[in-house]
Input
Amino acid sequence: MRNKIAFRLMLYFGAALIIFSLVIGGIFLSLFRGQITQAKKHQMLQQGQAVTAALGDSLMSQRAGAQQRGQPGTSRRDSLKAYLRVLDGLGRDQAWIVDEDLQLITGNRALRPYLYADLPQGAESIVKEVFQGGTSFSQTFDPLLDTPSLTLGLPIMLDNRVVGALLLHAPIQGMRETTAQGIRIFIISILLSLLLAGLLTIPLALSLARPLKKMKNTALALAGGDYAAQTAVRRGDEMGELATAIDTLAGRLKEARQESDKLDLLRRDFVANISHELKTPITVIRGSLEALADGVISKPDQVADYHRQMLVESKYLQGMVNDLLELSKLQNPDFHIAFDQVNLCDVLRDVTRSAQQMAREKDITLSLHMEESVYPLQGDYARLRQMLLIVLGNAVKFSPQGGRVEVRFAGHMIFVTDEGPGIAPQLLPHIFDRFYKAHSDDNKEGSGLGLAIAKEIAQRHGIGLSLSNRADKGAEVRFELQS
Output
């Protein structure tokens, strides 16, 4: 289960949600506590300002009334004591008034005077700052109240002088309760979010797992040799692209298998054909040698005939071996052909002159027609000559006595036509196969490799080579040059 993508996605989503919730919750609680503290500070400041204003006005009024009555003024300490009852409305808040001598003035909440040790923590620094004319806040943790507390120091002004310091100390009420409630709500929110994330993650994980499972099954099928297997996954995301790539791979493997089967069939046909082609001359040579060795043939004229027959068969074997070597070299991708700038018109003239001797032996008219006298081409002169001579030699070979062979070069096409019997339609697709040859009296000496060699040379030069029967009689070979 731990290796399943659905489980892992749920685990990752859950972990990410918990981490996100903890970070957001921590930020929220920090901001929330800060907001409560700021609100309490604002409340205490308003209360303290009201109290100090009232104390200052009372001191001024008391001193003015005493002067009018001609009575000596009471001490400032006694005056402040008289107005400490103003602080009774502050509820749980604790209040102190400290004079400029840092002496505590007792309020009306206790009969004994307050001691300096009764002041809240950090009060000394607050009092010093207040007597310098400032307002000061101090935030501490009150161990008695077991809650964060604030201490506010405000100056009591008389004749633009600080005559006392008012200290207000109050807990930040509801901090713990509110924080605990926030934590409870936070935990409930996390649980609900995890539940919702699980409900949303399961369909998402399954939607990702299903196509992955299909692609896995397809990959296993391909590994087993079933190249027709397809994922059948159609999506517009990266997973769909992966499925398309697997389907493309399956198609390529299927094509490769078909090509391999085709090549294997060709290899078997090649072995069968070459065995058949070699069997006849070898049998003739062996039979002739056995007859000569056993003395069956002893007459000089018969012995000479047997020698001539063996020579003919040996030449045929030599030609076949040479053609096989030539075809093997051309089919090897590493075999290098030297491409130079040649004039194709010169090649055609050269080939036509070479074929004239064969044409004269059969009283065949061989003609060459070219629209241009110069046609530059990148190629191997000797290989191009070999290619054209193979085709032209076949045209002469299969033409009847006194026939006509024409070579025509127009535009980017070369046409070689003859007046022979043509080729049977069912044999046309195999005309460029190795060892294919028509079984006729005109083709007894052919090895069946000539057109295969011509095809390889044409492909190396980017030339299209095709053959078809003419409408009236004979065949036509077409060379399509690159434009």
About this structure: The longest strand covers residues 147-158. The longest helix spans residues 5-69. The CA atoms of residues 221 and 229 lie 6 Å apart.
